[in-house]
Design goal:
The protein is an all-alpha fold. It has one domain (2-282). 75% of the residues lie in helices and 0% in strands. The chain has 12 helices and no strands. The chain is globular. It starts with a helix and ends in a 14-residue tail after the last helix. The relative contact order is 0.22.
């Protein structure tokens, strides 16, 4: 049980590494395209990649619980659309802080839908993670009201989507969940697309396709993480994405962290180290 639980945390950390790279490509893409175009192209390429991988393994593209997959796709679409919109209006730091509130919603939804206990140890580690992330990104809080509300809505939608992923992992291949999410996003954004569409150049198409590939890998790792762990600790482990983003910023963009950000990085790292140490009985859900 301990090995399986820790595998879930490790998989989420790996997913966070992938997502931190994806965020860089998304930020570049959003400077060239509208948020709707990014949603469409990234998820179109992601759904194609997931479908091809499933067929090569002789697995059905659509899983058995179609209705639940559709709900996961809908909430995932609402979450990613509001996230991209927020990122296009606010700084990356402010967007990251608002999006990380999704863990709070995961705790609430997991309690009602999955039956997971809300343990004080998890609340304490979550609080430690929030403090660390706040010090890393140091948001300016120059928030436009609409963008701020959109960012909060993004966190709520994402929290529901991640909880549904946990329910689906019981009898679905992770790539089936990825396909349902990506295909739903690509289809649901179509009514908005004509208002902002412009044909990408070959270089831009390669950029969006690369983002789709990272999205597929990240979604697959995230789904596997929820399959091997309880929703709350697994979701808390996703805070490592901010830590890795800070590392990439230093390595590739020469973004040197100030003492406050370094202290925040150490705090997030401490929270990640503490997660596997929480007793196993506090990791288990009453029912799935």
């Amino acid at each position: 049980m301990m090995v399986i639980r820790n595998n879930g945390l490790l998989l989420m950390v790996l997913a966070s590494i992938v997502y931190s790279g994806l965020n860089i490509l998304l930020k570049v893409s959003l400077r060239r395209f509208s948020w709707a175009e990014v949603v469409f192209f990234v998820n179109l390429s992601s759904s194609i990649a997931a479908a091809v991988a499933l067929r090569r393994r002789n697995r059905a593209v659509v899983g058995p619980r179609v209705r639940l997959l559709m709900w996961r796709g809908l909430f995932g679409f609402l979450g990613v659309s509001t996230y991209y919109f927020t990122m296009s209006r606010l700084t990356l730091a402010d967007t990251a802080i608002l999006n990380k509130l999704s863990t709070v919603f995961v705790m609430l939804f997991a309690y009602f839908l999955v039956g997971e206990r809300l343990w004080p140890a998890h609340v304490g580690v979550l609080a430690l993670s929030v403090i660390g992330v706040y010090n890393i990104v140091q948001p300016q809080w120059q928030l436009a009201p609409l963008a701020a509300l959109t960012g909060l809505a993004s966190a709520a939608f994402a929290g529901m989507a991640y909880t549904l992923v946990k329910l689906l992992t019981a009898d679905h291949d992770p790539l089936q969940i990825v396909f349902a999410y990506s295909a739903s996003c690509a289809v649901l954004i179509l009514p908005v697309l004509p208002w902002t569409f412009r044909c990408p150049s070959l270089a831009e198409l390669l950029l969006l396709t690369a983002a789709g590939g990272l999205s597929t890998l990240g979604q697959g790792l995230m789904s596997s993480a929820y399959a091997h762990g309880s929703p709350t600790p697994t979701s808390i482990a996703s805070y490592s994405v901010v830590l890795f983003s800070a590392v990439w910023g230093y390595l590739f963009f020469n973004e040197v962290q100030n003492p406050q950000a370094i202290a925040g990085s150490v705090t997030v790292l401490a929270a990640l180290v503490l997660l596997p140490l929480i007793p196993a009985r506090q990791q288990a859900s009453r029912r799935v």
